[in-house]
Amino acid sequence: MTPSAPIVLSALLAAALGASACSSGKRQEQGTPAPTTSAAAPEPPAPARIVADLVDQLPGCDLEHRGLLLDTGTDAMVGRFAWSGVAPRGIDPIEHDASTWMRISNRTLRVTFVLPEASPIFVAARSMGLGARAATVSLDDQPLGTLNFQRDHIRIATTGATSLPVDPGPHTLTFRFMGRAKSGDPLVDLDWIRIGVPDESTATYGPPTLRDVILREAALSGVPHRSIALRGPGSVRCTLRLPPGARLRTSVGVLGPGEADARVRLLRDGQKPVDVLTQHLTGGDKAAWTDVDLPLDPQGGPLATLELRAEGTSQGARILFGDPVLVLPAAPPPSTAKARAVVLVVMNGLDRDSLPPWHAGPTPQLPTLSELALTATTFHRHRAPTTFPGSVVGSLLTAMPPRAHTLTDFGARMPASNTTLGAVAHDASIRAAMFTGVPATFKSFGFGEGWEHFVEYPPYGNDPATAPYDAAATWLTDVLRQSPEARLLLVVHARGGHPPWDVSPKEQAQLPPSTYTGVIEPRRGAQQLATLRKRRDKKDAVSAPDQERIRALEGAAMAAQDRALGGLVTALKTAGIWESTVFVVTGDVAAGAGALYAEGDDLAEPHLTLPLYVRFPDARYGGAHVNLPTEVWDLSQTTLSALGISFSRPGLGRDLSAVASGLEDSSFEPQIATLDDRFSARWGELIMTGRYDAAPFLCDLELDPTCAFNRRETLPLAAQALFRRIMARDQSTRAGLQKREPATIDPDTAAALRVWGTIE
């Protein structure tokens, strides 16, 4: 591989997957794959890598049997509470006879769901009355009926069915509980809620709860499989992003008497369902598994709802989908080669469009970054988890999102209980140091813990903006002189283009515009811009000459830091460890001159999009341009892999070598950013923004690059899936963690924050 030749990784991936797919079987002429049966002694399937286990995905899927079922008290309710991030107050999980229920002490309960096809519906609930005798039920604020409860007795309460079919799409159910209970007293316990579809069946309803649907060891002909068990008519629908070449592998069969049909379909918003498989099955004493290996063609867009259906089962029988997984028929992705050193350089105040290779023209003033753009790997879909710089670096050091490590604002500090990369490296006898010139990552905010060596450079005094680079180069040179075999972890958090700018009066006089008479000064620039950011008329707050001068000052600052970055590279080369170093350059927040260096600001996509250069050991993937999504905790996992260390607890992220190879699917989950009670999640070309207690806004960049229109109602399957993933991430990463810890700011840090423009 020639370092300077850009690699189109999607082509590499397609070639690798195509080669594997050629040996995995033939398709029927109609496009429906011919399933392989165990009775026919099939050839063993091609080696494959599991992308997703559908049994593990079930809590985030829709389960249906004669209508949709909401299994209360379980993770299946995450993201169901009418666009609320968490269950409202007065709604708590409980148990009855080892079964999960939901206790309601709130007078109102609202839940959302998506109806895939037009149909009349009714609502039923398995309940035990406490302080409430009944609940009125409304569908989209239109009365639907009443559920009557019996105190301290379990019963199934049902409303009447709608007289007309309900339109497909998103809907909200509202329950209002009636009774004489005091405020805060328990009103009712609910086992499940059914959005039922009227039918002529006389069979007893068997609710498809998670406990009922998942069979850990379902055996046919003596062969067990971890299975999804469905009664007909019933289905499970999971909305996923399908990577190119994805296949569904499962074994299907009937548990119980009679015959039945198993179906697999792909559903997409605004399109007709696509049948992938229809398989007739026979149960009884001679029931056996039928193995299927189905290509899931992402034609029409990679975001799709995979539906597993059971049809025509006799009473007491269920269709089993054994060990259902999505696989990629490709070799395992490589991990980052073991390295002598990992160097992470994080710059503040960057505008990616002014940097190579994203800048349209040449960048001779940035020779080091220009060289990295040619010889390192550039990642074009790198996204920040927030717009507060201290929180971004906190996520880098912990592999946790902001709401998990709790460093979420300028008044919080990193709790000492959070284990960081520096602490893990130091405990493994790896020499670990951090040098910062950004006040948000000073000791007052908890960043000094766990390092062998930690130095902060306030933006006032005699230390230039290049001081963190220079000190880092000196430190690694000294360490390797004293201990030639030492392994290193080095983190540099630098000013980047953020003011104050180190520009002399002579240099300032030569900057454009040549006739500048404005007020922007290099040393007081951050404070001046902070004042301008507070003005209501922000559009006219900065004149065109001021903007030109700000960009010129930023350019001069970046040129100086590029030279210092080059000095750090030279130190690694002189020490003889450049080829065995993972060298990373990225930003914390995308708040350059165009955004007046705003921090902790809006979660707009331009503020979240960051540059990322990674030079792997021996320049592996040198010159590659990667268009797969990446996030800051991917840097954490790459660092752990390169140094052969690990956290004692699981963290987010993927090894960037695996992503750069094109064999790791990094688009399966959305990229989620948070700030206070706001979120912004990107999933392919979909962006969902909102607050944790209000209906979100969904944008489709492919149709609407300016995000002018809300697509939430027209893309209901995608909207529901994305929102539920946002809420599931939030709840899973915040579970059991400490509360926000306030920072204690000493006078020196307060002075640094004033010069930085953070406080007045």
TrEMBL record:
Q: Region Disordered: start and end of each range?
A: 24-44
Q: Where is the composition biased (Low complexity)?
A: 32-41
Matching InterPro entries: Alkaline_phosphatase_core_sf, Sulfatase_N
**Gene3D superfamilies in the record:** Alkaline Phosphatase, subunit A
Q: Which Pfam family is one of this chain's hits?
A: Sulfatase
Name all Sulfatase N-terminal domain ranges. 342-645
Could you say which residues form the signal peptide?
1-21
- Which UniProt keywords are listed? Signal
Could you identify this protein by its name? Answer: Sulfatase-like hydrolase/transferase
